[in-house]
Amino acid sequence: MIVATGIMDGYTSPIEDSLLENGMFSIDKYSTFVSAFVLGGMFSSTIGGLISEWLGIKTSLIFTSQLATFGAILLVIGNDSVSMTIGRLLVGFYAGMSMSWAIVYNSEIATDSVKKLYGAILAISLRIGAIISYSLGLWISYRWLAVLYMLMIVFITLNFVFLPETPRWLRNKGWDDRANQAREYFYDLYQENTSDEVNTKMSSDSSLENVNVSFSQKISSYFVWPVLRPLLVCCTIQIFKASSGQEYLLPYSAHTLESSISFNPKIAGLLFAVPELIGGILFLWVIQRISWKKLLLVTTIFQISSNGLLSLTIYLSTDKFHCSNTHISQETTICQILEFAPLIFVAMYAFTYTFGWGSIGWWLMGEILHPHYNRVSAGIVTLILFSIAYLNTQICPIVEEHFGSYTVFFINAIVCLIGFILQRFY
């Protein structure tokens, strides 16, 4: 499911030239087409938690997968920008829900040891999907990429038909027999937990119900500390994660590659996705050995450095040494260095993104969100992520047009620095 989302996340990078060249899209319409995926995820996140609490994750995913399938069909058969943009909006709608629901589903059925790995697995799955999209996009048309996505969604839906709903949700609905059957189905995951841990996961905490405390103390004990504080931490990390530059770095790296005669601009996505995949795999190993707070501090330093160095090299190449002049750039060693240095910094950013913000943000959602409010909480966190990402797709091009691309990366570095300072309060 997340691999399929990754395919659609990276869908627009390798197909840009073909869509612009066939006259189906103007540059402005293509920008709308790209941001429609994030916009759809933003819309779905607002209602995803409520829908899953009402219908259950299994039923909700089966229903919304039909929308994703219809969206993929529009991408396959669409012959105009409107139908294809609607199709991308629908697959984005499914992506926003499926990402939060995948975390919630895992957190409600898995043991603590499995949950701790899932944040990295989610990030790795997204990158695998993006790599598939970037790689195949070099050889097949955008219509066949959409066919691949559609087949994966159909396969996922058929699998979910045979999976039970989570025991916690079934028990909350009063279906104890079905909850016990579901628990037996997930026995391999539950067997590592003690019975007390399982009961805690399936029942509400009532340890303070009979204690003589004030109303404000009850609110603090029941809601503020166990519910709002984890939600605030997750939202804060997602804000800085989405504001650190990912939505802008990929198109920038494509532009940089296009300006270099030594590289094919279509491999820009691979330049970005492969380091991200390596970072996610390394996170999977490291998070079991050191504190997530220490890891976040270290990787944020590299995020600040990569954005800051990108800003500096772009400023030097365009304003100081005027390397945009092709004759100068070919003759000056400094310009040649400044031409390729940003690609190194892009790769450094991509690696530390999934080694830090990218994986930790998802990992914490399954780790610290309150189990009885995790569906609504996950929807709020995902809404924050998609909303900031969408704003980036709209604001960054405006800032670049008026102040230059180095200003965008300088702002990203400042945002990462603010996130670094605030981490001491997590």
From TrEMBL:
Pfam families, per database record: Sugar_tr (PF00083)
Gene Ontology, cellular component aspect: membrane
UniProt topology in membrane: Multi-pass membrane protein
Domain Major facilitator superfamily (MFS) profile per the UniProt entry, residue ranges: 1-426
An annotated Gene Ontology molecular function: transmembrane transporter activity
Gene3D superfamilies: MFS general substrate transporter like domains (1.20.1250.20)
Record protein name field: Sugar transporter ERD6-like 6
Source taxonomy: Eukaryota, Metazoa, Porifera, Hexactinellida, Hexasterophora
